[in-house]
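Hey, does this match?
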Amino acid sequence: MFNEKNNAMKRLTVPRFFITVLMVLAGFFALSSCNDNDGPDIPPVKMEDLKGNYKGKLVIVQGSSKREGIKEFKVKKDTISFDEFPITEIVKTVVKDPAKAEAALKTMGKVKYDLKYAAVINTSNNVIELTFAPKTMELQIPVDGANKKTVVEFVAKQKGYYVGLDQTLRYALTAEKITVDGTLVTPYTVIDYNFPFCIKN
């Protein structure tokens, strides 16, 4: 009985040993290929690489609520332009009644937004770093036959990056404050707009 168990353990242990060896060898060859001067060179990133039409993942987080989707935008010389900025969370923060919020969203339609940035090339990491200067967003939200003048203050808490290695753009934006008819919305849970992986169309 003991021999049978011992043989079974050997049968289990030997494949695991070979898997470990293969993993170590794979890591070694991967490192070797990274240091191989004959390998393909990654071209240095240029400012012109940043411009274009993008599509990417958008993750919107407000407290415990999280929503994901795909968003398109255009990057120009110093501006990221949205033809349709996602305002659902903003409107639902201002209009608490779900039915009225949905009606307001339908009436408002598409909302454009431009995000200003300044860019510099980080040659050591082969990335373009973007420092944002978000402007406020002004909305007229229709409720019960009247418009609520809504001002949204955005901040960018960190830099954005265009990565030369995989030619992707990553950045984030936060709706930090909302004012309605001159009154600050309180209590208020900030809305985070995260763009973790965007590529050109």
Observations:
- The chain has two domains: 1-41, 47-200.
